Amino acid sequence: MRELILLRHAKSSWDDPSLGDFERPLAPRGRRAAPLMGREIAARGWRPDHMLVSSARRAQQTWRLVAAELGVEADTAAFDAELYMASAERLLAAVRKAPPAAERLLLVGHNPGLEGLAAALAGPGSDDGALDRMSKKFPSGALARFTLDGPWQGLGFGAARLAHFLRPKDFP
Fold first, then answer.
1. Of all helices (H) and strands (E), which one includes residue 55?
2. What does the alpha-carbon distance between residue 94 and residue 80 come to, in Å, rounded to a whole number?
3. What is the CB neighbour count within 10 angstroms for residue 14?
4. How many helices (H) and strands (E) does the chain have?
5. CA-CA distance, 169 to 19, in Å (whole number)?
6. pLDDT score of 172 more than 90
7. Per-residue pLDDT tens for 43-84?
8. Could you tell me the sign of the dihedral formed by the alpha carbons of 80, 82, 85, 91, in that order?
9. Which runs of consecutive H residues, i.e. helices, occur in the chain?
10. How far is CA 137 from the centre of its chain?
11. Cα separation, 145 vs 2, whole angstroms
12. Extents of the domains making up the chain
């Protein structure tokens, strides 16, 4: 069985109007939430063996804070500009290109594509409580964890089971 963790970048800052969207950094709330989510991923034993990260500044900062909590070298992630504001279809295409040996994949991205991908992947056997929470809102810093059978290359919409949906506000 394989696992896919979709992590939305943590809360970003709008304080500097001179920065373009791609360059926006994390807000203080995001700098607190990302390590919190990293600690939770570590505590649950969900350490990824392959990581795909949008190359937008806030996504990279989120990953680096999560990686520090996981004891993972941040630079081992695949940073990809095409993941920035990508559609659900584009994100799925990136997941399908994951190395066949990868058992647990983490993708750090943006809404609305990330939320769209999560909703589209959730198929039969998904956890009803997680589905309900995810359908209400996929906030900054939240993660959706899926389990799936078969290779990454064969992953399709409705072909994974949503096992967990966690938000930073779920943890003290």
1. none
2. 9
3. 9
4. 5, 6
5. 28
6. no
7. 999 999 999 999 999 999 999 999 999 999 999 999 999 999
8. negative
9. 28-43, 57-70, 88-96, 113-121, 128-136
10. 15
11. 11
12. 2-170
Relative to beta strand 50-54, strand 104-109 is parallel
Q: Which amino acid is at 78?
A: A
Q: Which residues pair with 101 in a beta bridge?
A: none
CA atoms lying within 13 Å on the CB side of residue 54: 28
pLDDT of residue 99: 97
pLDDT digits (tens, 9 = 90+) for 33-49: 999 999 999 999 999 99
What lies within 8 Å, CB to CB, of 45 at 6+ separation is none
β-strand pairing of 104-109 with 2-8:
parallel
**CATH number belonging to the domain at 2-170, selected among 3.40.50.300, 3.40.50.1240, 3.40.50.1820, 3.40.50.1100:** 3.40.50.1240
How many residues in the chain?
A: 172
pLDDT of residue 57: 98
Label residue 28 exposed, middle or buried (CB < 10 Å: 0-12, 13-18, 19+). Answer: exposed
Give how far Cα 43 sits from Cα of 67, 69, 119, 153, Å.
13, 10, 25, 29
| 92 DSSP 8-state letter | H
